[in-house]
Amino acid sequence: MAFGLAFFLVLIAFTLMSKVSRVVMLTVVGISAVYVIWLKKYGDINFSQLKSIFQLLSINIGVLILGAIWGIMESMSNSDEEYRCRRQKFLIFLSKWGAIYLVYNFLGTKIFNIYFKDETAGFFVMRFFGGYVFAAFFVLYYLYRWRQKRSTA
Q1: Where are the alpha helices (DSSP H) in 43-79?
Q2: What is the DSSP letter of 1?
Q3: Residue pair 36/53 in contact by the 8 Å Cβ criterion
Q4: 121 CB-contact burial (10 Å; exposed 0-12 / middle 13-18 / buried 19+)
């Protein structure tokens, strides 16, 4: 059931993408598939390679979502200039919050590695729970800003 729903969502996102985004998406998926097949054929999967597989999965999901969002932006824009302006604002937003997430993820991983006295624990804790905690902080930040604007108006 979950696989079918995920496939349906990927199909919808793929139809929303522009042609360039589709080519990029298929290239990233192809590279990921070749890497996983190569790992499976030529060796055992150790922790470092497992981390690489998780990173490739994250990249695939990110490219899919980014391509779908850009496709929606392009279809909602009235002109090419409006689309470029929206895309630039979105890239600035992603850059700012992406940098914050990188620092958060790096520090969280290091803190959990020190706390558990294990080099792999921090990676798995941040991989499975870090994104949800970051999303909660993200929502709380914008709720706080919204309340601040509402109280000053």
Answers
A1: 47-76
A2: -
A3: yes
A4: middle
